[in-house]
Amino acid sequence: MVSLRNDTAEKIAHCEDAVHRSIATHSIRAERPLDEVLGDIQQTANLPLHRATTLPPEAYTSDAFYQWEVGHLFKPEWLCLAHVSQVPTAGDFLALDLLGEPLVVVHGKDDIVRVLSSTCPHRGMDIMPPGFGHEGHGTAEATGQPGCGHTRLFLCPYHAWTYELDGRLKACPEMQQAEGFTRDEIGLREFRSEIWNGFVFVNLDGAADPLAGRLAEMNADFGQWNPAGMKIVIQREWDCPFNWKVLVENFMESYHHLGAHAKTLQPMMPARDTWNEQERQLYVRCHLPFKDAVLEGLGAREHPFGFPTIGGLDESKKRESGLFLIHPNFLAFVQPDRIVWYRVEPLGPNRMKLLTTMLVPEETAGLPEFGTMLERETPLFFEFHLEDMEMCTAIQRGMSALGAQRGRLSHLEMSIWLIQRYLAARARGSWPTLDRDAAPGQRSMNQTGLT
Ligand code: FES
Ligand SMILES: [Fe+2]
Question: Taking the model in full, what pTM does it have?
């Protein structure tokens, strides 16, 4: 675990305090019925980018709309839960609630990573309640990272039934008189999962098309970082008093470098130079070029970006940062030496949980001087996130306000418009979501170096 400098720790404490003080505001504004809100979103998403506006505020505050999102976006899609480096060896597991569904990602003795329900099939106990690792969980031990632990088997603390790491019931005391009870037929439910580039995704309704096939194009790009060969070196969970889209939109547009990150990101990656690739069915891709003068200055350092630059990246990727969104909850900020991955866990219209992480190649993490490098890189990792936390918390207050208005978007906010088009396609029941001509990118492909 990386140690934080005092000033960074103080800023985090200040942010957490502000979050706890922030009241989850319930709007006193009259909210329209769901079908009107969905109709409004359809019209909004039909506007061309140069006439684009923000979504109606109900999209960020309404219970009914949130429930619609759960049913139409989250349950039928692939949701990212973990990176394989969080469960590197047999017996390692990660417990989390996603949309109120208690889940455990576990590395089995057969080396398969599975996503199991942690709901006991006896009387419904969550076998991995928050704070597991206390007595009563058999061999399970918390490892200190959010939700992570290690065990030989799972023990339900209620009546002591035990389960193998693949979910099969192993033992259950005093059940010999239960007629027709067949132990072999009982186990923790397994959800459909897929590992793509080292990230573990789950599909809760079990009916989504396989993920890898739908991300082949992104694989040729994102895969250059070799994320499967990386490991998480910083991770932290945050309680967030805002709607999940407030965070996703904020993450994906770089127009706000001008304000929120005026001193941190704007000097390196000016908002004006950022641009979006063409519309894709399942993901959004943005480029954030470094200023030439910044690159020249960095070029003099042994490791221009802080850690060794990743081999295998196209030259164009060594001159910029980048953003990826896989709809709806996978966010990655890439730099030539690292990936910053965010896991978005919606909890309701005005609440979510967030895991922020930094990943570097295993070889980087194994360098003798890695500790010093990480210490140097840690403050900025928290700094710009704290700036975003402050913005997102204040945006949610605005969404609930009587004074809320629909705003016009800059061309630098193209990602927000693409997210609207994704939402509208799902509201039309369209699957795949690109049921019309894809919007063109903001630069031609031969300028991107990606051809
Ligand atoms: S609820 Fe799990 S053993 Fe009874
Ligand atoms: Fe930001």
Answer: 0.94
